[in-house]
C-alpha cells in the first residue's frame, strides 16, 4: 500500500468531486432557467423586458446562494466529526460496561488503531438495525468514528468483524472519509432545493382556491416555482447518484485491499460479504436518514437495487478477494451457526498479520484497571499525566514523587486513583504505554471543553518543570494537544523543505539530543540530515529548548505537504539508527509524530 500515493489520489478525487458538482449545478441552472421562463410564459406571458430578464437572473443567483448556503451549513454541522453522523443514524456509543460482544468489537477497533498508527475511533452501534453493515465517518482521523449495525454484531464472528472494521479503517487511512463528508455537504445543497420545491407545492396543494384572478395567478406562480425547484432537486438527486458512482466505487475496492493488507486474511472479508448476501435483510439500514449517507456504508444500505450505484456488486468484490460467491454461499449454507474464531486460514497460514499480533500483545500487556481508566473520562484525565511521569521515571531508572502540577486540584479520592494508576503503570512494559495513550484519546474528547483545557495546561506545566525532559514526554504531550485541538486541520501550504529549516532543525535536535549526546553522534546526525535534505540544518542550541518552541515547530511542519512529512519521518528513522541502536522510546516518538502529522507509520 503506497499510502501517500492514495492521499494524492484522494485529493485528485476531491477536485473531481468539486468539478462534477460545479458542472451539475451549472447544468441544473440552465435547465431550471429555461423551464422557469417557459412556465412563466404560460402564467404571465413572460415578461421579456429588461426588468423581466433581470428577474430570471436574480432567480438564478438566489438558487446559487441557497445551494452554497445549505452546503456550507451542512459542512459546519459536520465539522464536529463522525459523531454527528453516528448520532443522526441512531448510533449509541459503546461503553466498556456493555455486553461482551460489544466489548469484543471495541477491542478489535482499538487493536486496529494501534496497528495502523492512527487515533482510535470511537465505536458506535446501530442497535435498531438488523442488517449486516458498518460505516466510518469523520473529516479527519482524529474525529473519525466507526459504527457497526446490531446485525453485524449478531451474525459475524470475530474474524469477520475484524475484516469489516479493517475495511472501514481503509477508508480512514485512505482519506475517503473526508471525500464522503464533502459529498454529503455539497449534495445537501442540491437536495435542499428539492425540499423547498416540495414544501412550496405542498402549501399550494393545501390552500383553498380563490376567485380573485390576481390571487389565483399568485398561487399558480408559487406552484410553478415550486414545480421548477422540485424538478431541479429531482434531477440533482439523480446527478448526485452519478457523482457518488464516479467517486465511490473504486474506493470500496481499495478499502477491501487495505483490509486484506491489515489482516492478511481475505477469507474473513469474503465470508462477511457472503453472509450479507444470505441474510434475510442483507445490509439494509432502515433509519430515515440513511438515503443521504448511503455512500458511507460497507454495503448498500438501501437494498440491492436502490444503492447499486455507490457500491460494487458483492460477487465482484468477493472475486477480487480470490473467491467465488456461489461457492462460499454453498459452504456457509451447510453450517447452521457461525463458525468459531479461526486461528488459521484454510491454506494453513496464520490468520492475522504481524501488525495486528503486535497490537494485540501491546494491549494485552495492560492491566484491567488501566483499561478501565482509559475508558472513563474522569480517570482518563488523571491517567494521561501519570503516563508522562511514569515514562520519565522509567527512562532514567529512578522513582520520583509526583510533582505538584500533577496532584494540584485533586481531592482525596482522585489522589487515591492516581496512586493506584501509578502503581499499575510501574509494572507496564514501555511498549504498551503509547498503545494505552492511543486508546485513551477518544475518551478525553468526552470531557467538557473546560476540563480539556485544564488537562492541556497541566501537561504543559509538567513539561516546563521537568528537570530532565524526555523527548517521548514532549511527543506524547503534542499528541494530546493535537487530538484535543478544536481548530480545523491545516491545509497543506508549505511545499519546500527549505521553508521549514528552523522547525526541522529544532525537531531533529529535540528528537535525539534532549539527553546527553556525544559530539561524534551530533556530527553524524548533522551529516545525515544534510545528505537527506540538501542543506545544512541549524546547529544545536546551547541553551535548552522549551516545550512551547517544540510544539510550535511540530505544528508548523504539519502545514507541509504529505510528501515533505513523509520524507521527514524517513529521515528521523535513519537518524534513529545513527548510533546503531533503535530504542522503544525512539519508535514510540516516531509513531506519535506520525499520528500528529497524519502519516500512518506502518503503511509507508
UniProtKB/TrEMBL annotation:
One GO term in the molecular function aspect is:
metal ion binding
Q: Which Pfam families match?
A: Peptidase_M48
Q: Does the keyword Cytoplasm apply?
A: no
All copies of the Peptidase M48 domain together span: 107-322
The prosthetic group or cofactor this protein requires is: Zn(2+)
- The record lists the membrane-crossing segments as 20-43, 55-76, 181-200, 220-240
Q: List this protein's GO terms for biological process.
A: proteolysis
Report keywords, A-Z.
Cell membrane, Hydrolase, Membrane, Metal-binding, Metalloprotease, Protease, Transmembrane, Transmembrane helix, Zinc
Task: Indicate what this protein is called per its UniProt record.
Answer: Zn-dependent protease with chaperone function
Upper taxonomic classification of the species?
Answer: Bacteria, Pseudomonadati, Pseudomonadota, Gammaproteobacteria, Cellvibrionales
Amino acid at each position: 500500500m503506497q499510502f501517500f500515493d492514495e492521499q494524492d489520489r484522494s485529493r485528485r478525487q476531491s477536485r473531481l468531486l468539486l468539478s462534477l458538482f460545479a458542472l451539475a449545478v451549472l447544468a441544473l441552472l440552465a435547465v431550471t432557467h429555461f423551464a422557469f421562463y417557459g412556465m412563466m410564459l404560460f402564467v404571465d406571458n413572460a415578461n421579456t423586458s429588461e426588468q423581466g430578464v433581470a428577474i430570471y437572473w436574480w432567480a438564478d443567483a438566489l438558487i446559487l446562494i441557497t445551494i452554497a448556503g445549505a452546503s456550507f451549513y451542512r459542512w459546519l454541522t459536520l465539522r464536529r466529526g463522525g459523531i454527528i453522523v453516528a448520532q443522526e443514524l441512531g448510533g449509541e456509543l459503546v461503553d466498556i460496561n456493555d455486553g461482551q460482544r460489544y466489548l469484543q468489537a471495541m477491542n478489535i477497533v482499538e487493536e486496529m488503531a494501534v496497528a495502523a498508527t492512527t487515533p482510535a475511533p470511537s465505536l458506535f452501534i446501530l442497535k435498531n438495525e438488523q442488517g449486516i453493515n458498518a460505516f466510518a465517518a469523520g473529516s479527519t482521523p482524529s474525529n473519525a468514528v466507526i459504527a457497526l449495525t446490531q446485525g453485524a454484531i449478531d451474525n459475524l464472528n470475530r474474524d469477520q468483524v475484524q475484516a469489516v472494521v479493517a475495511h472501514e479503517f481503509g477508508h480512514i487511512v485512505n482519506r475517503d472519509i473526508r471525500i464522503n463528508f464533502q459529498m454529503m455537504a455539497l449534495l445537501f445543497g442540491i437536495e435542499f432545493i428539492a425540499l423547498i420545491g416540495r414544501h412550496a407545492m405542498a402549501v399550494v396543494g393545501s390552500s383553498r382556491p380563490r376567485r380573485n384572478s390576481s390571487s389565483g395567478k399568485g398561487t399558480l406562480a408559487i406552484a410553478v416555482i415550486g414545480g421548477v425547484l422540485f424538478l431541479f432537486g429531482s434531477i440533482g438527486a439523480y446527478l448526485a447518484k452519478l457523482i457518488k458512482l464516479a467517486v465511490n466505487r473504486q474506493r470500496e475496492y481499495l478499502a477491501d485491499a487495505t483490509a486484506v493488507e491489515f489482516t492478511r486474511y481475505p477469507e474473513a472479508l469474503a465470508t462477511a460479504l457472503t453472509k450479507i448476501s444470505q441474510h434475510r435483510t442483507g445490509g439494509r439500514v432502515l433509519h430515515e436518514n440513511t438515503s443521504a449517507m448511503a455512500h458511507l456504508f460497507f454495503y448498500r444500505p438501501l437494498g440491492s437495487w436502490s444503492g447499486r450505484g455507490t457500491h460494487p456488486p458483492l460477487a465482484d468484490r468477493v472475486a477480487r478477494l480470490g473467491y467465488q460467491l456461489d461457492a462460499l454461499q454453498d459452504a456457509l449454507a451447510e453450517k447452521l451457526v457461525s463458525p468459531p474464531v479461526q486461528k488459521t486460514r484454510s491454506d494453513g497460514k496464520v490468520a492475522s498479520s504481524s501488525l495486528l499480533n503486535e497490537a494485540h500483545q501491546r494491549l494485552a500487556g495492560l492491566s484491567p484497571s488501566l483499561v478501565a481508566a482509559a475508558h472513563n473520562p474522569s480517570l482518563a484525565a488523571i491517567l494521561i499525566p501519570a503516563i508522562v511521569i511514569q515514562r520519565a521515571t522509567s527512562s532514567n531508572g529512578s522513582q520520583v514523587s509526583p510533582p505538584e502540577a500533577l496532584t494540584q486540584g485533586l481531592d482525596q479520592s482522585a489522589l487515591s486513583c492516581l496512586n493506584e494508576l501509578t502503581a499499575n503503570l510501574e509494572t507496564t512494559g514501555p511498549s504498551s504505554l503509547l498503545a494505552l495513550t492511543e486508546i485513551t484519546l477518544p475518551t478525553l474528547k468526552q470531557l467538557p471543553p473546560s476540563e480539556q483545557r485544564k488537562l492541556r495546561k497541566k501537561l504543559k506545566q509538567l513539561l516546563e518543570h521537568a528537570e530532565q525532559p524526555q523527548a517521548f514526554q514532549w511527543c506524547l504531550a503534542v499528541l494530546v494537544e493535537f487530538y484535543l485541538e478544536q481548530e480545523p486541520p491545516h491545509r497543506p501550504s508549505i511545499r519546500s523543505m527549505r521553508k521549514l529549516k528552523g522547525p526541522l532543525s529544532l525537531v531533529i535536535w529535540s528528537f535525539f539530543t534532549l539527553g546527553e549526546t556525544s559530539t561524534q553522534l551530533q556530527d553524524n546526525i548533522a551529516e545525515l540530515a544534510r545528505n537527506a535534505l540538501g542543506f545544512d540544518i541549524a546547529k544545536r542550541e546551547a541553551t535548552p529548548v522549551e516545550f512551547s518552541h517544540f510544539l510550535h515547530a511540530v505544528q508548523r511542519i504539519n502545514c507541509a505537504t504529505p510528501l515533505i512529512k513523509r520524507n521527514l519521518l524517513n529521515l528521523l528513522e535513519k537518524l534513529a539508527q545513527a548510533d546503531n541502536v533503535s530504542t522503544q522510546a525512539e519508535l514510540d516518538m516516531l509513531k506519535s509524530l506520525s499520528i500528529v502529522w497524519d502519516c500512518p507509520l506502518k503503511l509507508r
